[in-house]
Specification:
With about 425 residues, the protein is of the alpha+beta class. Helix content is about 50%, strand content about 20%. The strands form 3 sheets. It has a 4-stranded antiparallel beta sheet, sandwiched between helices. The longest helix has about 30 residues, at about 390-425.
């Protein structure tokens, strides 16, 4: 009986040793280096964890999962690029403070209508460690800042690119959009000399200037236009994009209702067009504000309290009858507007810094604000006029610029990542794939 017990003990011992040996080997396999990336490494367990996460997401979205060996290669390349970007960011001294990280996570939670505590619980219920989530967000912010510095800040979009995009793309398929157009032609005779052409151009420029200053378009067309519809006040009626002369499509597409385009040259002469009306398209209305201000910048002699006190004194003088413009010319530190008595002209949303714009938007017409602080100093603000304006053309132009910019950033990012990868030392252990 003792003999059997001894044999069983030995057998169990051998089983335990074998099991421990298997676990050790398994752990070693998971800890093997899959790739060396400059002075860093990627372990098998990192790769496996990331692959598992992606497979879970694909399955949750009913997407067919590709073969594991293909997926591992793709994921490994992403991990390599991620390592390289973070290494580069470290060299440049790019860091993410805890305050920035917490603010970003709070924003994510808010967009999901959750408190931070509820957000933690939601992540836990999905099997996601909050610490891992924090690390992922930190890495995303670091890489975002790196790309903004190395790529986005260098991207430029020209007016010519925007014009070309709007002419060739923005109205494609919008057959329901109609434009009510006015047209004036300053004609040029056949085989005209350069002096005659220049004289016609000068004449057209004078007409255009008058129209932009408010001259009546219909009366002007009747008086000076050589076009067949001159006696109709230059009215071309309502037309779709397909019915508008090709030469006019681009310029018309940039106009808001009531605006006149710049001169358009053709073999027959110089054309002036005005957009009387637009229908079949959503309008983008904005509130424009005409205002003025007096700025006092704190310096070695004037602190914040003194700047604020001076503006309160100027406000009292204006309320008692002193002229705002005169006081602005003699007291304002804003070199750009001081010559115009502090006049800022017509401004729209986003044209001014947020504290200034916020204070200005709360003012009634002719009302004067209390002193308002911005990064430029202390301001006294007065609103002169407000009006709702159709900014559809400006909005479309902004959209076009953003589309082109994003496209350029994507293209440049791809090239930049390829250079980063090609110039780096990366050694992949193919046996682990």
């Amino acid at each position: 009986m003792k003999y059997r017990y001894k044999k069983l003990t030995v057998f169990l011992g051998l089983m335990l040793l074998t099991s421990m040996s298997t676990l050790t080997v398994h752990a070693e396999l998971l800890d093997r280096i899959v790739a060396v990336v400059e002075n860093d490494i990627i372990l098998d367990r990192e790769l496996t964890k990331e692959v598992y996460s992606i497979v879970s997401n694909l399955q949750a979205n009913n997407v067919i999962v590709p073969p594991v060996f293909i997926l591992r290669k793709q994921v490994l390349e992403r991990l390599i690029l991620d390592k390289l970007q973070r290494q580069f960011a470290t060299k440049l001294g790019i860091q993410v403070s805890d305050a920035m990280l917490n603010s970003s996570i709070a924003g994510i939670a808010k967009r999901n209508n959750l408190t931070i505590d509820k957000f933690r619980e939601e992540l836990k219920s999905q099997g996601i460690s909050f610490k891992d989530f924090e690390n992922n967000i930190r890495n995303e912010i670091i890489i975002s800042q790196l790309r903004a510095r190395e790529i986005s800040s260098r991207i430029r979009v020209t007016e010519r690119e925007v014009s070309h995009y709007m002419e060739t793309q923005s109205e494609v398929g919008k057959t329901n959009v109609q434009y009510h157009i006015g047209h004036i032609l300053i004609a040029i005779p056949d085989a005209a000399s350069s002096s005659i052409i220049q004289k016609a151009k000068d004449n057209a420029k004078t007409v255009l200037d008058d129209l932009q200053q408010g001259a009546d378009f219909e009366q002007t067309a009747i008086s000076v236009s050589s076009a067949a519809n001159a006696l109709k006040g230059g009215d071309l009626g309502w037309r779709t994009t397909d019915e508008i002369p090709t030469l006019f499509v681009g310029p018309v597409n940039k106009l808001n209702e009531g605006e006149v385009a710049e001169l358009i040259r053709s073999p027959s002469g110089f054309h002036i067009i005005k957009l009387f009306g637009l229908k079949g398209v959503d309008k983008y209305m904005v509130t424009k504000t005409k205002g003025r201000h007096i700025l006092i910048k704190p310096n070695e002699l004037i602190n914040d309290a003194e700047a604020k006190k001076r503006l309160l004194g100027l406000k009292e003088r204006i309320l008692n009858g002193d002229d705002f413009s005169t006081l602005a010319r003699s007291n304002s530190d804003d070199k750009g507007s001081v010559i115009n008595g502090g006049d800022l002209g017509w401004v729209g949303p986003g044209d001014l810094v947020p504290p200034f714009e916020s204070a200005m938007n709360k003012l009634a017409i002719n009302e004067i604000s209390d002193p308002v602080q911005t990064q430029f100093g202390w301001h006294l603000i007065q609103v002169l006029e407000r009006e709702e304006k159709d900014n559809s053309a400006g909005f479309k132009k902004t959209q076009a610029k953003e589309v082109i910019r994003k496209r350029k950033i994507e293209e440049e990012t791809e090239l930049w990542l390829r250079r980063l990868r090609d110039e780096a030392f990366v050694n992949i252990n193919m046996d682990r794939l």
